[in-house]
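Appendix B. Chain record.
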Amino acid sequence: MTAVPVNRRSTATLDRRAVRREQVRTEDPRGGSSAKRPSWQRAYVRRLFWTDAVIVVLAVVSAHVIRFGQDSLLTVDAVHALDYTLVSVAFAAAWIIILAGFRTRSRRVVGSGFEEYQRVIASTLRLFGIVAILALVFRMELARGYLAIALPAGLTTLLLSRWLWRKGVSRKRRSGQFSTRVLVVGGARAVRHMAQTFERKKADGYYVVGVCVPRYSGVPGEDIDVGGRCIPIYGDESSVDEALKISGADTVAVTATETLGHEGIQDLVWMLEPLEADLVVATGVVDVAGPRLEMRPVAGLPLIHVEKPRYHGAKRSGKRLFDLMFSSAVLVVLSPVFALVALAIRLDDKGPVFYRAERIGLDGRSFAMIKFRSMVIDADEQIPALLDRSEGSGLLFKMRDDPRVTRVGRIIRRFSIDELPQFINVVRGEMSVVGPRPPLRREVEGYDGRVRRRLLVRPGLTGLWQVSGRSDLSWDEAVRLDLSYVENWSMVTDVLIIGKTVKAVLLSEGAY
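Structure tokens predicted for this chain:
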């Protein structure tokens, strides 16, 4: 078995830790007091219900008042107004019921982001589809303006509400509250990797409180060190029951399932049945989005089928059409900004307005990427002399206080204004609005076969790398995000990334 790096401690230290572990069952994993997961989740779901109900009622009432007037709500002698009052009551009740029917407040999705939003959208659109079908079948003359107001107003506000609630949960999780306390079971390397992944994504709320390593031969009470935090090892797979009691974990996460075997996992499922603990299993498939995963039972085995990523056909044509329309609109709207920036650059040092840099795009073809010039004219010639001062990792060259940047350049780089001319590259078909970071030729020459997959799609003006830290990212993390995008891109993802990019640019996150 792979050795587990541990911190050996004296018997007295282990005794003190045993007492501490008993205390941790009712304490927050990072020091503050915190309610058990079922308690906070029940309270959170109740708040979501009342928020949803208020939003739905307000949306329906607003549509009614705007379409028929304020007096129509309670005017009994007006037949049509009375009919629509009943319709509004039934419509609001149906909307609230269908949100529950689609499990939009399920504890498995609340605070999770995309899946939660998707269920809210699907349930709302399904309701309006049902209403349209009923109106057609029974020949009901429903006012289209009434539905046209209620649908966008209600759906937009529901999504905004869920987003605000999710931001609140994320803040709580970063401070150690509202966390799912996880006991990880699996091989030594696998449990360490899972713990490190959860530690990086604190806002997701999974906090590892202990591990069990099958066929573990060490002394229970030893630790593994993850990011400077000591996580106790409770023993092997037979210690899971006791580890749950000691650690106060409410979820068991199994990784590297071959270390347990199918009988071991089945025994674990049976053991957890009477306990208030969930079981999750890591498949080993990483950076693959949910739409590409499908569970299909085959010969009694729950097999996860991974669909191949699609780089061609209608999906790519739709992306290209979106790029053309979005980029053309941006270029028209921001043309005054282009003129002001161009004037400022010319007045600063009399040099050229634009800077054209060679980048490698789709299928390894080179193109000239256009930017507003933010550095001195001979910036490229100075790179060899500055390589030893680079703060980037891997093949990336970057400096926080680059001496080549001009006065105007510092301002336009801070808010990514220097990147705006790349919309011209998008219109020309050399780039996409969203995609992997456009690489230099010297970077591509250093690619291995895995990293070269970044060239399967057009590079983007923005991407996951842009909304996840920009210049603060390490080389490995930037590559991982780019590959994740290449494997899983979709139009919905592109729209979400564009929205996050606007926020990152306005806050100057990771820009220098």
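Further analysis of this model is presented in Appendix C.
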